[in-house]
Design goal:
Helix content: 25-40%
Structural class: alpha+beta
CATH superfamily: Gcn5-related N-acetyltransferase (GNAT)
Strand content: 35-45%
Largest sheet: 8 strands, mixed
CATH topology: Aminopeptidase
Order of helices and strands: EEHHEEEHEHEE
CATH class: Alpha Beta
Shape: globular
Number of domains: 1
Length: about 160
């Protein structure tokens, strides 16, 4: 759990869990339900999948304890790469830099766990966000859950002089 009060004007906290019975996980699912199922029309059966228990779920809370954003990490079988999935920021919190803060927390966590790279299927409307956060496009555009995506990836290996 990281307290970002020192680096951001709005006090916030980020929690992560693997426990699919925890309050943090339920908050993540509630955000995903709002953003993906209700707004984007993604079937709930696609959003909630067989990988839930294998993922690390992150939730960013504001100063009032309101869950505002979520993302999950799915470690790949060889444990060298992690897949970032289900990145979502509630509509009234978008444009405040919360997505970048949550993304950085997930990347830092993955790096601390020894993962060498991170990849994801970025919705085309969010591609610029990921490119601005150091990701590179890989491959061609494809459709997933009725939405156009492209794979992006980023190295987590520190480049020290």
């Amino acid at each position: 759990m990281i307290d970002y009060n020192l680096c951001y004007t709005i006090p916030m906290i980020i929690k992560h869990t693997r426990d699919t019975l925890s309050e943090t996980y339920l908050d993540a699912v509630a955000i995903r339900n709002t953003v993906f199922v209700k707004v984007q029309g993604v079937p709930r059966s696609v959003d909630i999948d067989a990988n839930e228990a294998y993922c690390i779920h992150f939730v960013l809370y504001d100063d009032k304890g309101q869950a505002t954003a979520t993302v999950r990490l799915l470690p790949n079988i060889d444990l060298t790469q992690v897949t970032l999935q289900r990145m979502a920021v509630l509509d009234n919190y978008q444009g405040q830099g919360l997505g970048s803060i949550l993304l950085k927390e997930a990347e830092d966590f993955a790096q601390e766990q020894g993962f060498k790279s991170i990849s994801l299927h970025a919705q085309l409307r969010a591609l610029k966000f990921y490119l601005n956060n150091g990701y590179q496009e890989v491959g061609q555009i494809f459709e997933e859950a009725g939405i156009q995506h492209i794979t992006v990836e980023k190295s987590l290996i520190s480049k020290k002089a």
